[in-house]
Design the sequence.
């Protein structure tokens, strides 16, 4: 076992850095083999540090030290020491200049942190702790410095040399080299440093800020992708305008650059003035990207742009505060997208993600608070909890304070902290001070892990015409937190009368007459009762718009859920009622199956679906969402004990039954959609909604395919003029074994083979297919000449899609799926620990499965754990999973 394998970093141990860096000048002499990095930095003792030691420690990993000077004098051997985590300098003065020269090897860098090569270019990734792979440095976010960066490289091969900030100079040098120098005037932490070099081209746009600054916008791409950056560029302009309008926040440099790279561990990175993106979130055109891809690009571009204020201008004091920038920025990008597209669809999309991914995380061994208290490897904490639950907390604040107060709170936050590195507490305090509210109980959302459960019960008293709503909250223990306090939970509710009209929500004792039709109930205690004056027995619409990240249960009858599906004025809750109804029906089916009874469809569901289909032309996008069955991932999370066979079987049979019972409706609604989009291909919410409903109908038609269906599908595939439709058709073909499917995949491959992002889809569609021989299929895909373990997108397309999205396959009773994924976790770990650790997370729920599966999953975890030399990333995930 590695010596440092169990090193835990704790929030309570935070201490300010002993030294601060004011200015850095970096000079890169780029070469695939042996890049030289020369660093000149001015250091001074931090007046706020209480530690008076004369030793300075600088982080550094895989750096070959070539020279070391303090104030121009070489440092003697006895005055420094190196180990695998960095450099110790003994007896340093209080103020001095440090000059270092190191050699790094970007071509061998497969972890994709620090400086690495991708598609013939150089690029960097420094969050969270990648800068220490570039040079010796106090690599922590509370050390903020101004950076000047010179890059020297071969001019032919690397004509474009980029770094943060503004271009200072560029000149030709002997031997075909050139040098370019950049300067970023804004002090920043090292994790926001970036460099790019390559033979790349750009698409350009311009933006003039509210105060008149003209900003050049550039999206850099590989030459063959020219033209595919336009959507990202347009998204950037929209985001810039939106942030000015909604929060009064303007961009602060003259240049904003986005660079697309093919090898990237995450989605994108907000480096100051020089965002580096996974090409998946930049490149798009109708031929290569689906409607969802277009939307995701808009979200990610906006997200990284919004970081310029929430993350860069005000950054995190330490990595426990990660949600300070991520939760807040996700909230901002969600609000932006909601303004751009259909608001309720955006909310449905976000809540789906939260419920499937974050709720699962929060109820398993990897559960952690939005502000974690300890970590071994920070890369393991870029989680749905920090991001998505973090965003939900900010959303609750926004609702509690109201739009105006929230904006004022943010203004106060920026006026207090611009240019500094702060904590989540600083953020909450600014909100509290601006709005003059008491958020002491609300703060628990940041420190307490686990998804709260709310049990709601309703009671109507005919004689007093009072509706009494009892809300009880609780939260199951999570690792390290057995006692849970009650949280402050805003529960938005409406009350519908028997005709489906909303009644004013008036609490008993409320004096005014100005009651709204939606009220936000402040649930603060373990149990609270709210009483309302109503004219008749209401059907309550609860947790409207998903006003808090909780699981709420209410004893709805099927009829009440049907009623809400049709009448609720909150579209989100209409969708949610439909989901609850289907989930209820499926779980009853699972129970019956466990009892040895045969499958049957409950007529109520067919009625509900028929109604949605009949009125679908009113809002096709929403109808499509209502008609999609809840994912297997969502269903397995409904019970503590997971009956995987029951869930997969019942869900499949239900799909077939709905297909059969409503065959004509699926066909005619599909036709109606086609008719209304025949004018061409566009991106309006209506057109996008049409495509999604059309393809949902198609998926039901495929579930009970009639004779001649597959040749038809083949023909549609030939006629399809966009990736959304093509991919929907291909997804259906992936689940069958016939001549049409074979030729379709062969043809798709021919079109895709030179376009990595499209080829990823070709892989992913097959990996996600419900198919009896799926494990063999996955093996073949892994052996395919285009499979590449070094490219995270490709790995995710096959392995993550399978392990996280194809539950029937991954959990095959033989354990073959576990075996395969377990082996690949180990293979990947030697190349890229971030990717292997995230894949290993698919075993974390092992305790909730039946005994056989549970043992097989645990066996894989044990195998990983007992392997020598596994990464710190993987070790932490495995250890916490087994605990
Ligand atoms: N900070 C990035 C974002 O959310 C995510 C990221 C983290 C990218 C770590 C790379 C490495 O916008
Ligand atoms: Zn982010």
Sequence:
């Amino acid at each position: 076992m590695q010596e440092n394998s169990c090193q835990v970093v704790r929030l309570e141990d935070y201490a300010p850095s002993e030294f601060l860096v004011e200015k850095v000048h970096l000079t890169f002499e780029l070469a695939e083999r042996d890049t030289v990095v020369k660093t000149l930095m001015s250091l001074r003792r931090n007046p706020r540090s209480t530690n008076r030691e004369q030793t300075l420690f600088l982080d550094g990993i895989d750096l070959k030290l070539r020279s070391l000077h303090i104030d121009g004098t070489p440092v003697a051997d006895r005055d420094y020491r190196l180990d695998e985590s960095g450099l110790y300098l003994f007896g340093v003065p209080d103020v001095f200049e440090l000059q270092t020269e190191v050699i790094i090897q970007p071509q061998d860098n497969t972890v994709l942190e620090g400086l690495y090569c991708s598609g013939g270019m150089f690029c960097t990734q420094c969050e969270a702790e990648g800068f220490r792979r570039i040079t010796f440095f106090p690599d922590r976010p509370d050390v903020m410095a101004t950076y000047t960066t010179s890059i020297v490289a071969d001019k032919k091969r690397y004509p474009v040399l980029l770094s943060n900030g503004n271009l200072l100079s560029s000149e030709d040098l002997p031997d075909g080299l050139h040098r370019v120098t950049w300067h970023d005037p804004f002090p920043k932490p090292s994790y926001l440093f970036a460099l790019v070099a390559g033979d790349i081209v750009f698409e350009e746009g311009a933006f003039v800020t509210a105060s008149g600054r003209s900003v050049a916008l550039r999206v850099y791409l590989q030459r063959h992708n020219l033209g595919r950056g336009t959507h990202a560029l347009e998204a950037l302009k929209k985001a810039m305008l939106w942030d000015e309008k909604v929060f009064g926040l303007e961009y602060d440099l003259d240049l904003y650059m986005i660079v697309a790279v093919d090898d990237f561990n995450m989605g994108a990175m907000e480096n100051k003035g020089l965002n580096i993106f996974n090409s998946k979130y930049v490149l798009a055109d109708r031929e290569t990207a689906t409607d969802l891809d277009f939307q995701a690009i808009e979200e990610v571009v906006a997200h990284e742009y919004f970081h310029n204020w929430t993350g860069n201008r005000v950054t995190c004091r330490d990595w426990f505060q990660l949600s300070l920038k991520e939760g807040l920025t996700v909230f901002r990008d969600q609000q932006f997208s909601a303004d751009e597209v259909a608001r309720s669809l955006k909310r449905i999309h976000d809540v789906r993600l939260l419920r499937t991914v974050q709720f699962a995380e929060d109820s398993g061994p990897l559960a952690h608070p939005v502000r974690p208290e300890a970590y071994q490897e920070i890369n393991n904490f870029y989680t749905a909890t920090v991001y998505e639950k973090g965003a939900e907390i900010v959303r609750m604040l926004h609702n509690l304070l109201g739009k105006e107060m929230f904006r004022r709170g943010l203004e106060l936050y920026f006026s207090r902290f611009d240019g500094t590195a702060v904590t989540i507490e600083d953020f909450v305090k600014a909100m509290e001070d601006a709005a003059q509210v008491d958020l002491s109980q609300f703060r628990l959302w940041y420190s307490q892990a686990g998804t709260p459960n709310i049990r709601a019960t309703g009671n109507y008293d005919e004689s007093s015409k009072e509706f009494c709503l009892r809300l009880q909250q609780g939260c199951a223990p999570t690792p390290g937190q057995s006692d849970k306090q009650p949280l402050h939970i805003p529960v938005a509710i409406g009350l519908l009368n028997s005709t489906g009209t909303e009644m004013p929500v008036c609490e008993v004792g409320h004096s005014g007459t100005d009651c709204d039709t939606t009220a936000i109930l402040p649930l603060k205690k373990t149990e609270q009762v709210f009483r309302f004056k109503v004219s008749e027995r209401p059907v309550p619409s609860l947790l409207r718009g998903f006003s808090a990240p909780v699981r709420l249960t209410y004893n709805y009858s099927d009829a009440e859920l049907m009623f809400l599906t049709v009448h609720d004025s909150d579209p989100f809750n209409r969708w949610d009622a439909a989901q609850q109804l289907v989930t209820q029906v499926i779980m009853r089916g699972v129970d019956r199956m466990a009892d040895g009874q045969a499958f049957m469809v409950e007529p109520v569901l067919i009625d509900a679906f028929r109604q949605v289909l009949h009125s679908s032309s009113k809002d096709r996008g929403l109808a499509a969402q209502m008609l999609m069955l809840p994912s297997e991932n969502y269903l397995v999370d409904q019970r503590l004990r997971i009956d995987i066979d029951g869930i997969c079987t019942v869900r499949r049979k239900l799909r077939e039954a709905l297909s059969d019972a409503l065959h004509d409706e699926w066909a005619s609604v599909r036709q109606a959609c086609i008719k209304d989009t025949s004018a061409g291909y566009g991106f309006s919410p209506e057109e996008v909604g049409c495509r999604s409903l059309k393809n949902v109908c198609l998926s039901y038609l495929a579930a009970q395919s009639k004779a001649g269906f597959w040749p038809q599908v083949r023909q549609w595939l030939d006629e399809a003029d966009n990736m959304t439709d093509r991919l929907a058709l291909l997804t259906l073909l992936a689940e069958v074994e016939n001549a049409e499917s074979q030729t379709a995949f062969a043809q798709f491959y021919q079109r895709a083979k030179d376009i990595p992002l499209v080829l990823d889809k070709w892989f992913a569609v097959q990996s996600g297919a419900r198919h009896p021989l799926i494990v063999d299929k996955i093996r073949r895909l892994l052996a395919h000449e285009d499979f590449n373990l070094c490219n995270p997108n490709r790995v995710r397309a096959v392995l993550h899609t399978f392990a996280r999205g194809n539950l029937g396959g991954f959990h095959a009773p033989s354990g073959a799926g576990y075996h395969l994924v377990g082996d690949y976790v180990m293979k990947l770990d030697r190349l890229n620990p971030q990717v292997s650790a995230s894949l290993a997370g698919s075993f974390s729920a092992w305790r909730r499965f039946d005994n056989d599966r549970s043992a097989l999953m645990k066996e894989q975890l044990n195998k990983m754990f007992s392997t020598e030399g596994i990464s710190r990333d993987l070790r932490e995930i495995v250890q916490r999973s087994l605990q």
